[in-house]
Amino acid sequence: MDARSGYARGGDAAVVAAARQWLADGHAVHLVTVVRTWGSSPRPPGALMARRDDGAVVGSVSGGCVESAIAEHLPAPGQPPATLTWSGDEARRAGLPCGGTLELLAEGLEPGADRGLGEVAAALERSEAVRRRVVCATGTVAVETDHGGPDLLREGGAVDKRFGPAWRLLVVGAGELGSHLAAMARRLDYHVIVCEPREEFRAAFDESGVELTPAMPDDSVDGLAPTPRDAVVTTTHDPRLDDLALEAALVSPAGYVGALGSKRTNDQRRERLRELGLSAAAVARLRGPVGLAIGSRTPAEIAVAILAEMTAERRGAVDSA
């Protein structure tokens, strides 16, 4: 759904873009941020939502239940932020599962206001990370370069939220699995790059919103300059391509490196990587066979398994390989 009407979902960049457009169009906007959670809560600290004065919403702070219940508790535009808490019976009445509790920071922005959103948007456009700090008592906002730390901090009477580039996924191979993986990863707010040196596969690839490059896999990894917020997955079944990417990715800071193939294929792959001079610690980082063991068979099911494992790794829910 278009962010200008009704209810839409999106990452931080989509929320910031929608809020800025609404403010420029003469609407008042509320920014609502998840500050803390207790018990079972669908969205983590740092989750962000923008609500237009006519009820249109982009982003989310729960599973959709709280979004519709908080309207009467929001501060007037231009007034200091309000801290809202849903707990116990109130949380259950609002629809929070298992009695989960949420603490939210709600900011009321007057039409035409900026409140640091322009600086945030410019940083995101440059793929740079910044922190937007809101003083709870006054609503004073400051935007500064991010030097690391959690996505959200609450200290000294202020809420400090990180805005940064999307997690990135480099897929080696533009075949059917690569197409499914790229499309699904986009829905999870990854910035997706597909590396495909083979012209016949590039010609058949048709996924919107995905960066397609003909570069060789090792050059693609080097060009990515991986960080712990990046993933590299090889899908070609061709060691001449897959091994090039893995050799580069496994010695990089990439947070997740996986390779398609059976256990036997991956055992052979690990032996080749050791022969190329990779250390035991580097080879041990390889996720192979890639993906959670959910009995997947079709390319789409395998893509689900891969993204499930990537999500578990990202959320700290699995041990390292």
UniProtKB/TrEMBL annotation:
Parts of the chain that traverse the membrane: none
Pfam families reported for this sequence: XdhC_C (PF13478), XdhC_CoxI (PF02625)
Residue span(s) of domain XdhC Rossmann: 169-310
Residue span, XdhC- CoxI domain: 22-73
Domain of life: Bacteria
Name used for this protein in its record: Xanthine dehydrogenase accessory factor
Organism expressing this protein natively: Thiohalospira halophila DSM 15071
